[in-house]
Amino acid sequence: MKSLLALSSVGVVLLAGLFAVACHAASEHTSKPASPIYGVTLPDGYRQWELIAPSLEGEPLNELRAVVGNPTAIQAYRTNTLPFPDGSILVKLAWKRTPSTEFEAATVPGAATTVQVMVKDAKKYATTGGWGFGRFVDGQPVDEAQHRTCFACHQARVKNHDYVFTRYAR
């Protein structure tokens, strides 16, 4: 009986080990592209998040933009909470401005240009005001040089608003 229990225990350990290896291999194949420097990825379901505000970028970019936030960020905006709490995520989607074919005074989204992400984690990103940054084109992160400019721009212009440009459109 003892040998049968010992054999069963070995079998359970072997199965657990095989399961762990299979899970690790699967996670390697499904890992998301991450931004250099910060390791930020595109968050799941961000296109269903609530709108914080639209924006219009003039020349030279000439873009239509929409900033959305996860529930933590939305709650912070609604309650005027600064600094934003850890776990806040902001995503800016951008498209080239294209003249509307139906209404000549209007512009509509054209080709997508970038998706930019800010993730609040005061400990992990302590050297950049508590924020990690990601910039993606066609789902892939842009080069490290472009990511190095993110915090410097936010720090120079909106340090007093927890490094966030976008204000809540009520």
Automatic annotation (TrEMBL):
Residues 1-25 form the signal peptide. It comes from the Bacteria. Keywords: Signal. Residues 43-166 form the Cytochrome P460 domain. Coiled coil: none annotated. InterPro entries: Cytochrome_P460 (IPR032033), Cytochrome_P460_sp (IPR038142). This is Cytochrome P460 family protein. Gene3D superfamilies: Cytochrome P460. It comes from Dyella kyungheensis.
